[in-house]
From TrEMBL:
It comes from Streptomyces demainii. Pfam families: ApbA, ApbA_C. Belongs to the ketopantoate reductase family. Residues 3-151 form the Ketopantoate reductase N-terminal domain. It catalyses: (R)-pantoate + NADP(+) = 2-dehydropantoate + NADPH + H(+). This is 2-dehydropantoate 2-reductase.
């Protein structure tokens, strides 16, 4: 397949490199210092499953540089979705399928505002991978899974073709017949993991071991389930307890990308995680006090380290989380 990966960070860099290593024609869109480093030395992915290297010529600086891909993988931070959707529109109008492996439950709604009807597949990724330094992505652990599918339709030829590419690349992948539910199931877990590890400033092992923060973790996820069910998503009422049990199986040192961004003073996806639960809940009349509190606690950091900005970003950050 001709695959364009927009965003060469943890998700896009890891899965794109694995697909490229298996023989797919993969082009990455990157920017800033990451782009400069890849152009100089290529992209390196360090993983317990084996190191991968992508040549420098596989990266371009703009979506407009892409040449008729069969599939566009969106793997940018959520605040860039609107801008990327506008840029990708000509490719989708030319027949390219688009699948987002971003976090959150609002990503595909944003994409569909700009892309042709039917161009968007739903997707979720399960991987712990981050940019360690410009040009280098590090994969933690061995989990590396993709689930994707058509909205409201049976598995399509394009979904099956992408599945074949993933399996040939050694990626744990499957097509889902109810991708909206799958996206929400990941969202419930991610809201819990990101919100609690960031608010507590500790990995999941610390969060789940303390009675108070363990209760917080469960209730944050339970609120997300309640919001999803109110929106008509077929989530089991006890799904939060199931995810809490799943959290007990995770490596104690596991954290979230939002916690990683918080530690490094980067912008947070807060407004699309706990902030989104609070916002959606308010519109539906569903109480979400735990997620609202997390959104408020982390609000000063939503646009990055407030100390680095001299405190100037606090007001804007608060607005972003609401």
């Amino acid at each position: 397949m001709r695959i364009a990966v927009i965003g060469a960070g943890g998700v896009g860099g890891y899965f794109g490199a694995r697909l490229a290593a298996a023989g797919d024609d993969v082009t990455f869109v990157a920017r800033g210092r990451h782009l400069a480093a890849i152009r100089e030395k290529g992209l390196t992915v360090r993983s317990p499953l084996g190191e991968l290297r992508v040549p420098a010529e596989a990266v371009v600086p703009a979506v407009s540089d892409l040449k008729e891909p069969d599939l566009v993988v969106v793997a940018v931070k959520l605040w860039d979705t609107e801008d990327v959707a506008r840029q990708v529109a000509p490719l989708a109008e030319g027949g390219a399928a688009v699948v987002s492996f971003q976090n959150g439950v609002q990503k595909d709604t944003v994409l569909r505002r700009h892309l042709p009807a039917g161009a968007v597949l739903g997707g979720v990724s399960y991987v712990s991978a981050f940019i360690e330094e410009p040009g280098v992505v590090v994969h933690h652990g061995t989990m590396q899974r993709l689930v994707f599918g058509e909205y409201g339709r049976e598995a399509s030829p394009r979904a099956r073709r992408f599945l074949d590419s993933c399996l040939a690349a050694g990626i744990d992948a499957e097509i889902s017949g109810d991708i909206e539910r799958v996206i929400w199931e990941k969202f419930v877990f991610l809201v819990g993991l990101s919100g609690t590890t960031s608010a507590v400033r500790q990995p999941i092992g610390v969060v789940r071991a303390d009675p108070g923060s363990r209760t917080l973790l469960r209730e944050v996820m339970h609120e997300a389930v309640a919001v999803g069910r109110a929106m008509g998503v077929a989530l089991d009422p006890g799904f939060a307890d199931e995810r809490l049990a799943f959290c007990d199986t995770l490596p104690a040192t596991m954290t979230s990308s939002m916690h990683n961004d918080l530690v490094h003073g980067n912008r947070l996806e807060l407004g699309w995680l706990s902030g989104a639960v609070a916002e959606l809940g308010a519109g539906l009349g569903v109480a979400t006090p735990r997620n609202r509190t997390i959104a408020d606690i982390l609000s000063p950091y939503a646009l990055g380290d407030p100390a680095a900005a001299g405190g100037a970003g606090v007001t804007a950050a608060g607005a972003a989380s609401r």
